[in-house]
Design goal:
The structure holds two protein chains of two kinds. Chain A is α+β, with helices and mostly antiparallel strands. Chain A contains eight helices and 21 strands. Chain A folds into two domains: 221 residues, P-loop containing nucleotide triphosphate hydrolases (Rossmann fold), CATH 3.40.50.300; 128 residues, RNA polymerase II/Efflux pump adaptor protein, barrel-sandwich hybrid domain (OB fold (Dihydrolipoamide Acetyltransferase, E2P), Beta Barrel), CATH 2.40.50. Chain B has a single domain, classed as MetI-like fold. Classes of the chains: A alpha+beta, B mainly alpha. At the A-B interface, strand 7 of A face helix 6 and helix 7 of B.
Chain lengths: 372, 228
């Protein structure tokens, strides 16, 4: 893996920190949001610190977009890596007002800014910081502090933004206040982001790729819905298993308040406030909201019935099973999970490889501003 | 009387000069030392800290005695001084500065070290992720955040140098205008039964000490209020 490829974030981190053993390798696209998910203490933060150069493990490898930051004999110190790092606690410089906090990492020479650079005014507008500029960090709320920290990281003009549980120290209300800012951020900027979290709902709203970790090891790397529906990974087995993916808004029916979303191999009708056609929209379908039928139901209240193929069957306790489905008659489309009773599975004589109809009872739109 | 007052002011001025020079040298030496003590994880860090703290416990005369031996004509200091034709530092102002630096070192290093330690690694790491070189991080983040520690250290170092007696007597002697500082002058006046002059100096020192302690308390209170 020690060849740096443009457009990729490549890492091989291996080593021991006290009793903790890290062995994490991944190769992900250097664009969009990639989440690192796992329980507390699984090494997520250590991976981020290794990427930032804050943690040195000898002999490791990491390269960002073709640029090698560490290999066997070379280690680029953190202040020479074009990263932005948002810590769990905002960690603002208490002796500087917000404006000088924001500008601390900004390129200091005039004319040093590149064409893709994000401007001060843009960051201030994006994160709603106008009223805070003259204040000192002691006089900010937790959410405001975290927004300033994000702005400060962005203004250092990073080529990789690392966010280490940026919301987990905040209460529910403050999280909901910041989430729209994060979503807007990822819509506007092309900057690759690595977002660490132990909260799947945050990841389902923001991330397109996922690195799944446990006990210092990487269990899986790939697009978020692929990992969510992978029978070999724990996500699909979870009680609240769900699949999240993006659809494109095709039309809006004002009479019934329904939006039509194209998801590649079919369309979904979802109750929603009006959304402009053409917009990408993140959706989430939980396993318990999907049921199966052998034939297309004739007179049903369920709006969304899609042809699908059963790819595999997972047992979920003594009385239920979870079926991994692939939409499209050939089974080549988006994956879904369906949680049904074992009795239904047997009664319908379902089997892996069988073509069925997936009845989707509920779809949630998870982008913050469209939640209504 | 006028001569005596002149003598008195000479001692005051000499004391201020000694304390100022000592404080400046201590800040210059003590800051990197305190930074290293606060951040080093080596096992012998605390041994170095203990050596620096020795003057807190030792009678000043012990330190003075060893300095006298070291700086005297037969000691290593004297040998070195003789090698380049200089005279030894014993019974000179420079010798007094040297002794005062060692003697007041813990009073400057300790508060600065504590202030650096209280900052923790995080602000330094944040500065590094914002492209700040270690040098820039030190000057723009660590030092400003440790400011209360610097103030306390400077005030304590200055005050403690003003108040030293045993060490001065051992290595400085009692030469007017060269090594006769306040504390020695008070002793002199008392020995000569000049109680009035002794009283002027002594009460001045009491007021000085009060002002110092009050200042430090206020600095610390302010530091606590701004969140650290």
């Amino acid at each position: 893996m020690n060849i740096a490829t443009p457009g990729r974030i490549q890492a091989a981190f291996r080593g021991e920190l006290g009793r903790f053993r890290l062995d994490a390798r991944f190769d992900i696209p250097a664009r969009g949001v990639t989440a690192i998910f796992g329980p507390s203490g699984c090494g997520k933060t250590t991976v981020a610190r290794c990427l930032a150069g804050l943690q040195y493990l000898p002999g490791n490898f990491c390269a960002i977009d073709g640029d090698i930051w560490q290999h066997e004999t070379m280690f680029r110190p953190p202040h020479r890596r074009p990263i932005g790092y948002v810590f769990q606690e905002a960690s603002l410089f208490e002796h500087l007002p917000v404006r000088r906090n924001l500008l601390y990492g900004a390129p200091r020479r005039r004319g040093a800014s590149g064409p893709d650079d994000i401007g001060f005014d843009e960051v201030v507008a994006l994160l709603g910081l106008v009223k805070l500029l003259g204040r000192f960090p002691q006089n900010l709320s937790g959410g405001e502090r975290q927004r300033v920290a994000i702005g400060r990281a962005l203004l250092s003009q990073p080529r990789l933004l690392l966010m280490d549980e940026p919301l987990s120290a905040l209460d529910r209300l403050t999280k909901d206040e910041i989430m729209p800012f994060l979503e807007r951020l990822h819509e506007r900027l092309s900057l690759p982001v690595i977002y660490i979290s132990h909260d799947m709902t945050e990841i389902e709203r923001l991330a397109s790729h996922l690195i799944l970790m446990n006990e210092g090891k990487v269990l899986g790397v790939g697009p978020l819905p692929a990992l969510q529906s992978d029978p070999a990974l724990p996500l699909a087995h979870a009680r609240d298993a769900a699949v999240s993916f993006d659809g494109t808004v095709m039309a809006y029916d004002g009479t019934y308040g329904l939006v039509t979303l194209d998801i590649g191999h079919g369309q979904l009708l979802v109750p929603s406030p009006p959304i402009a056609a053409g917009k990408r929209q993140r959706l989430r379908i939980t396993a318990s909201d999907v049921s199966l039928a052998r034939a297309a139901p004739q007179h049903s209240s369920i709006l969304n019935v899609l042809p699908a193929r059963i790819m595999s069957r997972l047992s979920a306790g003594p009385s239920e099973v979870v079926a991994v489905l692939a939409l499209g008659s050939g089974g080549s489309g988006v994956r879904l999970l369906a949680r049904i009773t074992l009795r239904s599975w047997d009664m319908l004589q379902l089997a892996e490889g069988m073509d069925v109809f997936a009845q989707v009872k509920g779809v949630s739109l998870v982008s913050g501003r469209s939640d209504g | 009387m006028g001569g005596l007052t002149g003598d008195l002011w000479q001692s005051v001025w000499l004391t201020i000069e000694l304390a100022s020079i000592t404080t400046v040298i201590l800040l210059a030496l003590g800051t990197p030392l305190a930074w290293w003590l606060a951040r080093s994880k080596a096992w012998w860090t605390e041994a170095v800290a203990a050596v620096i703290a020795l003057p807190l416990v030792l009678p000043p005369t012990v330190l003075g005695f060893y300095l006298l031996v070291a700086l005297g004509p037969d000691g290593p200091g004297g040998v070195i001084a003789g090698a380049w034709g200089g005279r030894t530092l014993a019974f000179t102002f420079e010798g007094l500065v040297f002794g005062s630096v060692l003697y007041s070192m813990p009073f400057v290093v300790q508060p600065i070290r504590n202030a650096f330690a209280a900052i923790g690694d995080r602000p330094i790491e944040v500065a590094a992720t914002l492209r700040a070189s270690p040098r820039r991080a030190f000057w723009t983040v660590a030092v400003p955040l440790a400011r209360p520690g610097f103030l306390t250290g400077a005030v304590l170092g200055f005050a403690h140098t003003v108040g030293e007696f045993g060490l001065v007597l051992m290595i400085g002697g009692n030469i007017p205008g060269r090594t006769k500082v306040l504390s020695v002058a008070i002793f002199d006046y008392v020995e000569a039964s000049q109680w009035r002059e002794a009283n002027i100096l002594a009460s001045g020192m009491v007021i000085f000490a009060f002002a110092i302690i009050l200042t430090i308390t206020l600095i610390e209170k302010r530091g606590a209020r701004t969140g650290r």
